[in-house]
Amino acid sequence: MRLSTADVVGWCRGRIQTSNASITRKGKNWYITLDNCEFTINAHSYTIITAHKRT
Questions:
Q1: 10-54 pLDDT tens trace
Q2: What's the CA gap between 53 and 45, in Å, rounded?
Q3: pTM given for the model
Q4: What is the layout of strands, in order, in the sheet containing 29-34?
């Protein structure tokens, strides 16, 4: 899967902020799932660690 945008962080933020995103915290990370995407965000710095397509 390829993104058709140069602003990858903005794309991730837009996806994470949707109302149907499922957000859980495990230890030091937030895990967000939405449709077929999963994001891992550091809970302290809010750094995007991973963003990938779920299989």
A1: 988 998 899 999 999 999 999 999 988 999 999 999 999 998 887
A2: 23
A3: 0.81
A4: 22-26, 29-34, 37-42, 48-53
